[in-house]
Design brief:
Shape: elongated
Order of helices and strands: EEHHHHHHHH
Radius of gyration: 24 Å
Number of domains: 2
Helix content: 55-70%
């Protein structure tokens, strides 16, 4: 008997089970992690970007207990393997969905709008930000020269902190815009919202890389 695409096959009894369940409805055995949905459906959640942390934590703990390999110590080899597979997948899913940024990145990937590589982000930076990046790089060159001349650390660290301020302001602006777009997506937003979310997320990553570069300058 063939299994419809919306079902997964139970290797124990051969029956079909929905992709979002973890145990076979017919024989109650744990299902192998063959055909399944995604991190959201694995937790029994819709594809929403605003997830209550306490709810996600509770779902994680409940599933962790259900899949724990200790409960399958005397089970058949396929069941033990299935518990390990689902436990590992559960941990990956939890790490991804618990953080807003990785949650957005994962949703974009599911919807076919994931970044194509490191160069993808640079194509999305608006001209206004590029101008600020140019000014920042000039300031960093002068700060490095100042440090090289033996100037007191207070002098160049102060300039570096001031150079950081406009980039930090951009970061706060983008985080607020991402929250707004996430709310629009959860309210039923379509392709336009998803595209705007992708653009803002790529720009957000670019800004975070700039701030990380400034932090490296401070610690050198």
């Amino acid at each position: 008997m063939s299994i419809p695409p919306t079902l997964q096959a139970c290797k124990n009894c051969g029956g079909g089970a929905p992709v979002d369940v973890h145990f076979c409805p017919q024989c109650t055995k744990i299902l192998s992690l063959g055909r399944h949905g995604d991190y959201f459906t694995f937790f029994g959640l819709p594809r929403r970007l605003n997830i209550e942390p306490a709810d996600l934590e509770q779902r994680f703990r409940t599933l962790s207990r259900q899949f724990h390999p200790d409960y399958f110590y005397n089970a058949t080899p396929p069941e033990r393997r299935a518990s390990l597979e689902r436990s590992s997948y559960l941990n990956d899913a939890y790490r991804t969905l618990r953080q807003p940024a990785s949650r957005i990145e994962y949703l974009l990937k599911l919807e076919g709008l994931g970044a194509q590589g490191p160069a993808d982000a640079s194509k999305q930076v608006p001209p206004g930000l590029l101008e600020e990046v140019f000014a920042l790089n000039e300031e960093l060159d002068e700060i490095r020269a100042l440090r090289g001349s033996g100037a007191p650390s207070e002098e160049w660290q102060g300039r570096l902190a001031r150079a950081r301020e406009p980039i930090e302001a951009k970061r706060r602006e983008h985080e607020a815009q991402l929250q707004e777009l996430a709310a629009q997506w959860d309210a039923g937003g379509g392709a336009d919202v998803l595209k705007a979310l992708r653009d803002q997320f790529l720009e957000r990553n670019y800004i975070h890389n700039l701030l990380a570069g400034i932090e490296r300058e401070l610690t050198q």
